[in-house]
C-alpha cells in the first residue's frame, strides 16, 4: 500500500496490536515488492489501496505466502488468478467499507424525497418562507417507493438501514430469487419495472462487462418524472452522455458520488445543474471511518494466527459477480 494509506489506516495503537500478533517491522511499508526485505519469508500480506498485482512473477518470490488480508474493499486490482491457483486465503474489509457508503445512500434517499437540496437552494435565493408543498407536490418520505439495483454488500446494508422507514422497497438482482429478496425486506422485480415505478433508484451493482452502461438512454427514459437516481456504486453503470441529457431536461434528479470518467470534464453541465448533486467519491471510508477497516483487517489477522477461518473470505467464484 502507499505510505499515506498506511499512516491513515494504521495509527500507533493499530501497529502495536499488529506487532503483538505477528513478526513485523512496524515502521516499514512496502509500496512495491522490490523494496521488501525477507520477501521469501512473508506468510501474511496486508494490502490496501495501491497494491501492485500479485501475479505469478511476484508470487514466485514469496514461497511462504499463505494469506492476503486486504484493508480496503475490492481485491480485483491485485488478487490475480495466480493467487487462486496457488490456493491463497484471501480476506477483504469490504463489509466495513460498506457501512459509510450505505449511510451516505440512506441520507441521499431521505434528502431526495424531502427535496432538501432544492428547497435549500430556493430558500437561499428568496430568503423568505415559500409554499413548499406548492413547489413540490407530494414531497416527503412516507410510503415512497425505493428501488435498489444490486444486492451487494452495500445494497444489503442499505436494505437494513431502510427498514425503520415507511418505504416500499423494490430490488433488482439477477442472482436472487423472490424469497431471498423478501427475507431482506424487498420485492424482487425486473430492472425495467423498478426504474419505471421508483421514486428513488440507487445503484449497487458491480462493474462487470454485463453491467457496463446498465442504465443507458432507453433505461434512463423509463425513470418517472421527478425521480432521483443515486449512484454510489461504479460510474460505468451509467451512460454519462445519456444521463447528462436527462438531467439537462430537468425531468429527473441525480446524486452522483461516482461518475464515468471518475472526474468529469470541467465543462460538464452536471457540475452546475440545480437538480444534480456531485460529490468526489467520498461515500466510502474516509477520516475516522478508516479505523473500522483497520479493525476488520486486524481481526482477520488474529483469526488466521489462531487457526480460525476468516470472517470475510473472498473466493474466486464470488469475485466473478462482485465489485
Task: Please describe what this structure looks like.
This protein is of the alpha/beta class. The chain has helices at residues 3-9, 12-21, 56-60, 81-86, 94-114, 116-126, 132-135, 153-162, 178-183, 191-197, 217-222, 240-249, 290-305, 316-319; strands at residues 44-47, 67-70, 89-92, 144-149, 167-172, 187-188, 200-203, 228-231, 253-256, 276-278. Helix content is 38%, strand content 13%. A seven-stranded parallel sheet has the order 6-5-4-7-8-9-10, sandwiched between helices. Helix 5 packs across helix 8. The longest helix is centred in the first third of the chain and has 21 residues, at 94-114. The relative contact order is 0.13.
How far do the termini sit from each other?
19 Å
Tally of helical segments: 14
Task: Give unreliable regions as ranges.
Answer: none
Strand order across the biggest sheet?
6-5-4-7-8-9-10
Largest sheet: 7 strands, parallel
- What class do helices, strands and sheet pairing give? alpha/beta
Task: Write down the Rg.
Answer: 22 Å
